[in-house]
């Protein structure tokens, strides 16, 4: 059949809209996974085991199974319990929770590594435990793990392609739509890959700048 | 929780788990081959090879595995590559994880002190001998754990072949969710099997790592 990239420009608007959705879903899930990661980490380290146990179980389940399977669970599971969310929201929740678990692992290690004296000093100054965590310990811990969390966010961008399977019109599904009309899978998937690659490069560039900032601030 | 239903369908999940294991094993083998070639290229004396190795790692790691798989499976026929879904899955996933393994293997090799190689050369070994008998055995020990991390990711990554209709665990779960409307039960069945596969693999890698320790 040969290759013919000349059909691509006609569908560029669909593809670019897909790019926007991909950036949106990545940003949404990244924010959720960041704060979710902090939340899970604090629960894992500072709560009674009865509260901790279900979270451990959830963490364990989410680290040991594929993201795609989790997306099916969240998308169809929510529908089953009567919560009919748009695919986009289900996708953000699925991706966000998945990466929150991985971020939590990083943040836990970092919190433990923050000197105990920091917590004690904050308590001595009259801050409550919650305040000390929020204002002293967690900010320092998070700063230490920004680079690996950034790497997780780059992985998140690539995994966002999976939400096409539950029907979110992001870049991958946009490419599929164009393919449905032209029957040119090679061309459109390559174009989609190129866009992912560019977004990826952009994220890496931003991450390197942030890393340099942190280094300089130290 | 509908235990009766789970008891009724679990044989299909077991059968699917076998496919997931086959995919994982074959992908691991291909990944290790690609990773070794990639690392060799990246550490080569020839700039062209280094460039090819770097491009391989950058492009594969910079784009989604799902898209790579789609290019191979759906786009392949346009450039004369006609593969069944399972083969496309193994090749696509193997080439993908190979890029990550390239970095793992390269990292382990450059972690071995330069003095080791220089000492071997001083003792009269050729360049190849010093690599094979001195650098590689030490680097291999360093690689086991990080390669284990790659393999763990790879096992979960085999779920990506579900959208191209390879009847493995995730595809099976998806199909039964569609026909029974019991997402939680089906997730649990598939999830437990994934975790068993990952746990056993992890133990195997830990065992290898212990055996490879010198002290």
UniProtKB/TrEMBL annotation, chain A:
Gene Ontology biological process: amino acid transport
CDD domains, sorted: TM_PBP2 (cd06261)
Keyword Transmembrane helix annotated: yes
Stretches assigned to the ABC transmembrane type-1 domain: 19-207
Chief localisation class: membrane
Subcellular location: Cell inner membrane; Cell membrane
Family per similarity comment: Belongs to the binding-protein-dependent transport system permease family. HisMQ subfamily.
Protein name: Amino acid ABC transporter permease
Automatic annotation (TrEMBL), chain B:
Locations listed in the record: Cell inner membrane; Cell membrane
Keywords annotated in UniProt: Amino-acid transport, Cell membrane, Membrane, Transmembrane, Transmembrane helix, Transport
Ranges of residues in domain ABC transmembrane type-1: 17-205
GO biological process terms on file: amino acid transport
Gene3D superfamilies: MetI-like
Family matches, as Pfam families: BPD_transp_1
Gene Ontology cellular-component terms listed: ATP-binding cassette (ABC) transporter complex
Top-level taxonomic group: Bacteria
Residue stretches spanning the membrane: 12-39, 51-73, 79-100, 147-167, 187-208
InterPro entries registered for this protein in UniProt: AA_ABC_transptr_permease_3TM, ArtM/GltK/GlnP/TcyL/YhdX-like, MetI-like, MetI-like_sf
Chief site of localization: membrane
CDD domains xref list: TM_PBP2
Membrane topology, record value: Multi-pass membrane protein
GO molecular function: transmembrane transporter activity
Protein family: Belongs to the binding-protein-dependent transport system permease family. HisMQ subfamily.
Name of the protein in its database record: Amino acid ABC transporter permease
